[in-house]
Structure formats: C-alpha cells, structure tokens
Amino acid sequence: MNPYVRSASSGELQKIVELINKAYRGSYEFIPFTIQSLNLEISRRGITFLVAEEDGAIVGCVGYSSRRMGVEIEWLAAFDENVRETLVREVERIAEGSVHVHVDVDSPQMEFWVRRGYNAEGGLYHMTAKLEGVEPLPEVPAGTVIRSLKPGEEKTLIQVVNISYGWERLREDSIATWKAEHPPFNEEWIHVAEINGKIVSAVVSRPDTEYNRYFNARRGYLGPAATLPEYRGRNLASALTRRAMNFLYEKGMDTVSLYTLEQNTPSVALLKKLGFKVQHHWKFMYKTLAKNAPNH
User: Fold this and answer.
1) Which of 1, 115, 128, 160 is deepest in the core (most CB within 10 A)?
2) Which residue, among 265, 199, 260, 271, has the nearest Cα to 237 in the 3D structure?
3) Nearest CA among 60, 51, 66, 52 for reference residue 99
4) Which domain CATH number covers 89?
5) 190 and 149 Cβ atoms separated by less than 8 Å
6) Percent of residues, the chain, with pLDDT higher than 90
7) Structural domain of residue 36, as residue ranges?
C-alpha cells in the first residue's frame, strides 16, 4: 500500500528537519539543519515540501524548487524504498518539463535514480586549495587595473556578473545579504579587473561561514569568476582568483573552497594550475517527463 502524500504544513517543519538530518547524516560536509536554518533555505531558494504519511505518522519528505530547466529535487528523506518511489512520483506528477537532482557519484542512491529513468548530464566539482602564503598574480594585459570593488559600484558589479552568465545570478540585495550573513564581508572582499575605466571581470570572496562555525575551521569561499565575453582569454579570471586567494590568506584563512561545473574544462584546468584539487563530485541527473516529451 502506498503512503499518502500531501503538502507539508509549517507546523511540521521540526519533523522535516529530523528526517533530513537523519537521511543525510554522514554525507559529504553535511551540516545538520535547525528549524531556523531550514526556513532560511526555504525562503532563499523557493522550496516546497511534500510529506508522506502512513497511519497518521510522517515517514518521509521531499523538498523541491522550480528552476529555469524544470523542477529540482533538493532533498529526499525517506528510509523505505516504496516511500521514496511514491514521493518522487508525486513530484514528477506535479512538475512541468523535467525533473533534476544532483547525486553523489559514489552514492548507493545512484541506482535508485537510474532505475527511475534518470540520466546523467554533467556534474559539479567541489574544489579546495591550501593557502600557505601570498603568491604573485598571473600576468594580465598592460593597463589592466586589479583592485577591490568600491562602495557605490554594486550595480556595475551585478550588471557585469549577470551579463557574463547570461542570466540573473546576482540580485540587487546580494551584497547586503552577504554582509549580513558573512561578517566581516564588505566590498573589499570583491575583486575586480578594470580596463579603460570599465569593470570587466569579478571574483567574490567571503568567509565560508557555516562550514567554519560547524567544523571549527578557517576556510574561505570563492564564487566563480565572471568575465564579460569580449574580455575573455586575457588571464583576468586567473589573476582575480589568485588575488582573492592572497586576500583570504591575509585575512587568516588556511584553505579556500569553491564549486565549478565538471563540464567547464577550461575553468577546472585553470583552478588546478592555481593549486585547487577536486574534493567531491556530484552528477546532475535528469528525467524528461513523458507528458512533456515531443511527439514523433
């Protein structure tokens, strides 16, 4: 008999926290949720939760969000195969287009997703590097100014990043949010390249706050470099990344962390030259739903 699946109520958040923390305990760098931290993720990422119920008890949950490419499953916490199947089936029923999930390459759960018809399409690397001193910056074209962002240049930064990515990666409140969540972050932690008075490339650094607090560490975090298309191939990303690494070292960090796409081979090669190593690997799994498949 299949469990009854329904939308979760706000009063059930504690049970959802318990399920997620139990299901993901021991997974790579997992930091247990509190009601407050999960609420923040729900608000920030627009997550909806469904719960599975048997005999009046909640036995599983799934959290998902709507993305540009379809629905993404963020968390699936259930300890019975039938409950997992039922929760995923309900997300697929609700979704339009396709359903996506990222899975640890070595996870035994990979078999579950493959069996449900999910295919691998690229992946994500978590990369880290040791910070052991200040290193010289890679050479950039003459006249390039490498510096920190100045107060009042936030809108320019947002425009450069969003044009570089081709979608809205940063919003107007992004810098204010970073200041609130990652003290002592400020504009000084944002590294930019300027050519002929125009900001053309940027890398954001900050403390890896949640990781440092939970693991008692001193790790910095880098957002990926964003360079306007017409200014690529000039070593700007390498120079800014090295500047950010030097900056974090001077702020007392002993390691630095970032995420990059597996399929972005130029970025991976650049980062390895700067001392980064792959620490973890996730695969992006997706399923195009039959109801949205093209007719032939």
Assistant:
1) 160
2) 271
3) 66
4) 3.40.630.30
5) yes
6) 92
7) 4-123+283-292
